[in-house]
Amino acid sequence: MTDNLKRFQISCPVFWGFNRFVDISKANSINDCINLFLQTHREFLFEQNYIDLLNYFDAHKSEYHIHDLTFDDIKNTNEIIYVCRHCQETENSESNLSENVLENNLNKDQYKNSILNLY
Ligand SMILES: [Zn+2]
């Protein structure tokens, strides 16, 4: 038996490292788990008054996903569960955080999406 508190961590170029224990006893799917965890991150940004980061996060929330785990795997693991938003980014050589990263990322993502649509 494992308990319902699972440790999730964000794996993305901007918010990497944020982690929380989340009670997944009410979750019915991987998406529920992701949403519960992302909600704790959203509340954190809100409480800290990181308004620009919050807007950025909201704009990218739908890109987060979990690799290689089924919902059963999540229920049975005691390991850290990584919630990823790296895939879109790693295809580009630029990975340094600059002061302009928030504004740039919005444009870059649109650019990248238009590139991806070519394939
Ligand atoms: Zn990924």
The assembly state of the depicted protein chains is single chain
Distance between the termini: 45 Å
Estimate the helix proportion, in percent. Answer: 40-55%
Cα-atom Rg, whole angstroms? 15 Å
Order of SSEs: EEHHHEHH
- Biggest pleated sheet: 3 strands, mixed
Domains (count): 1
**Rounded average pLDDT:** 83
Strand proportion, as a percent range, falls in 5-15%
Work out the helix count.
5
- Ligand inventory: zinc ion
**Poorly predicted ranges (pLDDT <50, ≥5 residues)?**
90-104
> Count the strands?
3
Judged by helices, strands and strand pairing, the structural class is: alpha+beta
Please tell me what the overall shape is: globular
Give the neighbour order of strands across the main sheet.
Answer: 2-1-3
How is this structure best summarized?
The chain is α+β, with helices and mostly antiparallel strands. The protein has 5 helices and 3 strands, in the order E-E-H-H-H-E-H-H. Zinc ion binds next to loops.
